[in-house]
Automatic annotation (TrEMBL):
PANTHER family for this protein: NUCLEOSIDE TRIPHOSPHATE PYROPHOSPHOHYDROLASE
Source organism (scientific name): Streptomyces composti
SUPFAM superfamilies the record matches: all-alpha NTP pyrophosphatases (SSF101386), Tetrapyrrole methylase (SSF53790)
Pfam families from the UniProt entry: MazG
Domain of life: Bacteria
Protein name: Nucleoside triphosphate pyrophosphohydrolase
The UniProt record lists the keyword Hydrolase: yes
Length: 327
């Protein structure tokens, strides 16, 4: 029969409390507050941890200390609970030390619990992107000199690379290219903050598109109904025309876009508006291409994507011909 007393036999508990820097300090989960108030000791190795002022204001006695694994195990002796408020990168030295002690089999280990005290909301990593962009804009010799006009070509390039990733069906490439496009948005918004007369931020950009989406989706956020995608599109264009006070379905169509995409966009606007406008009956390859683009749009085919697919097939045929024996 063991001579250990119940207090000596109880190994205690270590709670590693993790928090997200993307959530306002002090906004902790209820289980986290319960663990903090019930702990025999609360330790934090980072004296500048953003949670410390809020914990102390709530009456939590936090010790600024970076104990070793052995010291934490000793502090848990007798069934005591020690809460360690982790730093942003976690506590790798402590957790590695505890794992080493447990693996040695000579120390009776306390119960170890990982307790997330706050969770990121969906989209929280966007805050990291904004912070990184702020620092790059301030400290990078190249980024600090960029302008909207100077970056415009990159926006076009990234958009085309995104389209290529979509058409190729490469999921890894798609994720990367979406990030590159997002970077362009955040970069331009960061530059816009510095305008002396009409500054705006990425929050203003996001607020604008949120308002627009809500306003143009009354079948989602209001009392309107839309049973088909066509009805949604009709309402979108009608609302857009009222907002921008447009008198023609052609207004707002950028004429500088690729020609096939331009032709398809015009055809889509005409068809959606219920207009009967046949293409000009004029000879020439341009008008033949226009007629093909209109036909493709009527059949639900993106002529730009269709031509790119055909061009890729032609490229493959060229490569095959180049690699053929005797070529």
């Amino acid at each position: 029969m063991s001579s250990d007393t119940p207090a000596e036999a109880a190994p205690g508990r270590v709670v590693l409390l993790t928090t997200s820097h993307r959530v306002a300090p002090g906004l902790l989960s209820w289980p986290a507050w319960q663990a903090l108030h019930a702990a025999d000791r609360v330790l934090c190795a980072d004296g500048a941890h953003p949670q410390l002022p809020h914990l102390r204001e709530a009456g939590i006695a936090v010790e600024e200390a970076a104990p070793t694994a052995e010291e934490v195990v000793d502090a848990c002796a007798g069934g005591r609970t020690v809460v360690v408020v982790a730093r942003g990168e976690g506590e790798p030295a402590l957790t590695d030390g505890l794992a080493r002690l447990a693996g040695g089999g000579r120390v009776r280990m306390p119960e170890l619990e990982l307790l997330p005290a706050s969770y990121d909301l969906p989209g929280a990593r966007l805050l990291d992107l904004v912070q990184v962009m702020d620092r790059i804009r301030a400290e990078c010799p190249w980024s600090s000199l960029q302008t909207h006009k100077g970056l415009a070509k990159y926006g076009i390039e990234e958009a085309y690379e995104l389209v290529e990733a979509i058409e190729e069906g490469d999921r890894d490439e798609l994720r990367e290219e979406l990030g590159d496009v997002l970077l362009q948005v955040v970069f331009h918004a960061r530059i816009a903050e510095e305008h002396p007369e009409q500054p705006f931020s990425v929050d203003d950009v996001a607020a604008g598109i949120v308002d627009k989406l809500i306003h143009r989706h009354p079948h989602v956020f209001g009392d309107a109904t839309a049973a088909t995608p066509e009805e949604v599109k009709e309402h979108w264009l009608r609302t857009k025309a009222v907002e921008k006070r447009r008198t023609s379905v052609t207004e707002g169509i950028p004429l500088g876009q690729p020609a096939l995409a331009l032709a398809a966009k015009l055809a889509s606007r005409v068809r959606t508006a219920g207009l009967d406008v046949p293409p000009p009956r004029t000879d020439g390859i341009g008008y033949e291409l226009l007629t093909l683009a209109i036909r493709a749009e009527e059949e639900g085919i993106d002529p730009e994507a269709a031509l790119r697919a055909a061009a890729r097939a032609y490229r493959d045929a060229v490569l095959a011909a180049e690699s053929a024996p005797g070529s």
